[in-house]
Amino acid sequence: MKAFLILEDGNVFTGTSIGSAREVISEIVFNTSMTGYLEVLTDPSYAGQAVVMTYPLIGNYGITPDMESGRPWPDGYIVRELSRMPSNFREQGTIQAFLTKYDIPGIAGIDTRALTKILREKGTMNGMITTNENYQIDEIIPKLKAYTTGNVVDKVTCAKKRILKRNGSAVPVKKVALLDLGAKNNIAQSLYKRGCEVTIYPAHTTAEEILSTNPDGIMLSNGPGDPKECKEIIAEIRKLYESDTPIFAICLGHQLMALATGADTHKMKYGHRGGNHPVKDLKTNRVYISSQNHGYMVDTDTLDPKVAIPAFVNVNDGTNEGLEYVGKNIFTVQFHPEACPGPQDSAYLFDRFIEMMDCK
After folding, report:
1. Which of 104, 139, 330, 356 has the smallest number of Cβ neighbours within 10 A?
2. Catalytic residue at 338?
């Protein structure tokens, strides 16, 4: 079946329908990862977006037990070539069947290189995936320009609190409160395998409820959308900031902590999404290769140096990649140290968080 990707600038790409045949409007973004497509599909940070994979062949190892959440989240999936005969000893099905099962429309067989160049030159834009060959582009363009992702954190956060307990531990267990803003599974697992008991809270949990349990540390997770949409959550994070509890924040959590302490954020031209982004630790001048997925950034010109100072910077474009908070046991990063399938260069930041809790 034919499918069409229509961009708000009027560009149209024609390919083959994969997954669901329903019509969808979404923000179109690209990811440069060469592997890990299942982790991309199941990352809640992609809610409200349709993902273009720049690597030309997707699906060659099928669906494996490597999901970062219980289901896929993108509104749509766009690839150059879809492997319909995966080969892997852990393979549990095809991407085609996976997309169909979860009613996610997609398109294959288009020139993803040309599409990515458009998004890089003109910036992220909205688009429609449709199988309707009689589409009226003059009617579609205004709909595309009017689309917004809205507050998608409410869509992806967990419904109720749950705990990853440590049973039978011979050493005192660190208790970490993880605020789920769209958390990937490996954040909790990275803490758990370091001996922590992790309590995962829904995004709108009050600071009072979290602090009443006297956690050794608080983790603010990744998540989707414009951070400024999360006004109520920002107010609660301000209260967490004012406590003396050690805090480590990733991605959206990093942006929300900055907003909670008076800094500003803005949308990037096309964001950072992939597994090959170099970031420099400004203390050591050491460069790490990081996994990233974000379309917004903290504006360092709006930082109060008495509140926070830059800790990491993106080597490619000089944008902020992390902050240290003055006089507080708080540090935040824009990239993903819990990255699966990788790279794992910055996983040491979880150890640093453990050390902060030891000094509490």
Report:
1. 139
2. yes
